[in-house]
Amino acid sequence: MARDFKLGPAQPPALTPPEAAPPIRRETYAARVAATRSRMAAAGLEALVVYGDREHAGNIAWLTGYDPRFEEALAVLLPTGDPVLMVGNEGVAYAAISPLALDVKLCQSFSLIDQDRSLGISLADVLAAAGLKPGMTVGLAGWKTFAAGEAPDPARASELPAFIVEAVRDIVGGADRTINATALFMAADGGLRTRCEPDQIAAFEFAACRASQGVLRAVRSVQPGKSEHALAAELGWVGQPLNYHPVVISGPRTALGLASPSGRRLERGDPVFMTMGGWGANSVRAGYVASGPADLPAHDRDWLEAVLMPYYGAVVTWYEGLRIGAAGGDIVAAVEPELTGGIERAALNPGHLIHIDEWVSSPFVRGGRITLKSGMALQMDIIPVTRDGHFGANAEDGVVLADAALRAALARDCPDVWQRMQARRAFAVETLGIALAEEVLPLSDILGWVPPWLMDPEQVLLPA
Description:
Helix content is 29%, strand content 16%. It has 12 helices and 17 strands. The chain has a 6-stranded mixed sheet with strand order 5-4-3-2-6-7, sandwiched between helices. The model has no long low-confidence stretch (mean pLDDT 97).
């Protein structure tokens, strides 16, 4: 049933952001290695090769604390011994960022073009030194799995670069000795990275607090004549690792969706779309350079009622459906009827798991029976496909689900994080009227805060 909303004054709580990202403890990484070895044994794997590069750092960074910056990297895990980290020339010094005891091996094949290759050690030699042997059953973990029909043998198809796959298969005895093991980390139903520890949640909250406050500053600074670059400067990047390219686009450029900021200057009546993220975080807001509908072109003056209000109804429905044990497909079924009026449908899943990578996988699929669990970091990601050329809407933010034990651990071990989460909850529930279950902990300062007219950000959507 469509919800009713009105415009009224409401501003997010003024929270002091954390000065630094809390570190992930060595004990947490050690537990991850042990959990991965347990999964390897259950899957019949004698070795696991985990791939990483600048765009696909999630699995290797989660396992080892090392995120590739310029080059490819591999982590090789055997049932015993220190994890092996294979890096290029520029990764050797950076490998010390990991708190684990790693066996770091230089693989110059991972180095950039025209860098030193004088050691003459092949990738196969380094893989053999890492412990791969003929006859082993080896899992290859990258960033994708494949469904029936997408590959001749989806269980053995690999998204890793061909030169790596070929080298592994040459050592162990062919494709039959390797399997795609990406699901071990990323599957929505039970992947190791789908449930976060308290220190990981605290690190993600740092990024989400910084990102959401940056978007809030940007919204409050919208005015005609300001350039997209100047608006992007308000996002306030403080050096946190990013999980996607931040976006500021306006006017006709909003059709580009993922474009970077330009020198274009805002004009009254322009639509604007802006985002900021970081590991575990993504905050997005979209609206108009306007004080009200009279500032919009005639065709768009019904945008608030035709697009934003039904969209916001879907957003509130999504947040209110979150609870431990809920089936993702049931939340999809509740969200879709809210997308009415000028909205045709949602472009993607209405939400997904977020982590070091902005999109891990999603339990929110139509008819899906994967249930939500404590420790999941989740991103609201309803992207409306509109009718009649209307501008869309977007108000993405993230939450984490926490059962009583995890809530107690956060309150005890991360008191500042816990207090900010409780302030955000109070704002969402008491001011915005969003009925969050007790296990839903907001990571973003601006969850549910949606101003349509960005030149008057005091006015936001509230229950009618």
